[in-house]
Design brief:
single chain, mainly beta, two-stranded antiparallel sheet, 1 helix
């Protein structure tokens, strides 16, 4: 997509439709999770930033976009509860319909929606994670089971 690249702040994630030209525009954002409605209860810590690169183009009554969203994901292994931190980069294609009377599009809301839909909370620290013994609570990756039930 050709066009110019513009760096924007979160306050500018609401895009004026007339600024999106048919030749395309690239917008780059760095935002905090709470600025797009994500909280510490979600999968990203509040102090971590989200980087968004949006290539947008106006076609008829739509703004078509290719988004690249990068963030540091903070969660726990679904089996052993070890704390995990890894960078996630996801690509999205969006089409935002322009309705009569619309002057602005909220790209921040769309980024939030796509992140929540794509996020897979069942993350493992490694493929062969043995998890935690349900009886004695031993982490079977690092210590033997005290009750010997978890090792069967």
């Amino acid at each position: 997509m050709c066009g110019e690249t513009i760096e924007r702040t979160f306050e500018e994630m609401k895009i004026r439709i007339r600024d999106v030209v048919s030749g395309g525009i690239r917008l780059e954002y760095v935002v905090k999770p709470d600025e797009i409605g994500l909280t510490g209860e979600d999968f990203i810590e509040p102090e971590n930033s989200i980087k968004v690169i949006a290539d947008l183009q106006k076609v008829d009554n739509f703004v078509l976009g290719k988004l690249v969203v990068t963030f540091l994901c903070e969660n726990h292994c679904a089996r052993c509860l070890e704390r995990l931190s890894h960078e996630v980069t996801t690509k999205y294609e969006v089409d935002l319909e322009i309705l009569d009377g619309d002057e602005w599009l909220d790209l921040g809301a769309k980024v939030r929606e796509e992140m929540l839909v794509e996020y897979l909370p069942r993350t493992l620290c490694r493929e062969d994670c043995k998890g935690i013994c349900p009886d004695c609570g031993a982490d079977l990756n690092t210590e033997p089971c005290e009750c010997n039930k978890g090792s069967k």
